[in-house]
Amino acid sequence: MNDTQREPWLIRSDLDFLNHGSFGATPRCVIENQRHWQNLLEEDPIEFLAPERSLLPKLDFVRETVAKEINASSRDVVFVRNATEGVNAVVRSLPLRAGDEILVTNHGYNACINAVSQAANIAGAAVTTANIPFPIQSPDEVVRAIERRISPKTTWMLIDHVTSPTGIVLPVAQLIELAHSNNIRVMVDGAHAPGMLPLNLNELKPDYYTANHHKWWCGPKVSGFLYVDEESQDEVLPSIISHGANMEGYGPSKFQSQFNWPGTFDPSPLLALPTAIDFLAGLHPADGPNRLAGLLRHNHELAVEGRRVILNELKLAEPAPESMLGSLATIPVPAWTNHTSVQIQAVRTALRTEYRFELPVFRFDATNVCLRISAQTYNSLDQYERLADAVTKLS
């Protein structure tokens, strides 16, 4: 990473950070804006933080910003701490009955699968897993894998927009249509999507969609949104029940009132989000309604090129088509297939301490031990070239 790329970010200069996908990275100007909001809060805590004073208009501005970026109505958007909380809020509110089935996939995020499993256990419902292959050759394989697991008892489905372990973009439009044609409500875990992919929830029409602000939108940590279709809003409760449950003045609807105030909290990660999106929009300016289009294209191309460098070095076929990538890419390393957990940890440690790389190395299933790369504007192709050399030496 050269000095020009590094300057807007706080990432250590002695580290090749190829793991933006885990927690993101927040630019300096966004951290400064967050501190500005924190200072204002402490200068006049009641005026700033009390919902009946000046807090709600500030939150509404952020809500409008989010709604515009995802092409949805701001009436359908509330805030959560992260996508995992968004999934929890919805699945714990579901009117599940004994015998119902919830459909998830083997590429799902573990924390969210845990939330689904707990809710199912309490209700006496069952969790069914669709096994999407990896490596994978086309989106059709995703649709077929899920379609095979749908039964007359399936009432609800959780799918990822971008899978966390394998970094593939699922065909969510087709999957939402498939679910609705079978009278199944569907939630999309879009943790990685905002800032990586163009979003239009008015066209996708999921029943629920949740995502993080701190990943590819580069907002401060502990910030995310939950979208709920208008027809489902009355039944969705936040993870924390507070004053908005029975008091006026906390929002224009019961849905937003419940989520706007979880109790005393720091709203600065939310309030700094517009600055983060503005910053990203200025990195690769684009014409048209999607002001992040240039950034999305740049990061996708870098992820594709970075993956190609590693695949060529290891003489491997692509584990997923380029069309199914955003700005994440996961590569199974056959030489590590039979590694024990201790050996996998040794690879992680060597990459971090000897070669100064930060990226995930993990066992996805019995066959695949993988590494996952991310591509953000502070990354450069030479980092993936050095990684390819390091992986060769560790294989």
From TrEMBL:
Naturally occurring in which organism (per UniProt): Rhodopirellula baltica (strain DSM 10527 / NCIMB 13988 / SH1)
Keywords: Isomerase, Pyridoxal phosphate
Transmembrane stretches, start-end: none
Enzyme class: isomerase
Name of the gene encoding the protein in the UniProt record: cefD
Domain Aminotransferase class V: 60-383
Domain of life: Bacteria
InterPro entries tied to this protein: Aminotrans_V_dom, PyrdxlP-dep_Trfase, PyrdxlP-dep_Trfase_major, PyrdxlP-dep_Trfase_small
GO molecular function terms attached to this record: carbon-sulfur lyase activity; isomerase activity
Keyword Membrane: no
Name of the protein: Isopenicillin N-epimerase
The enzyme's E.C. designation: 5.-.-.-
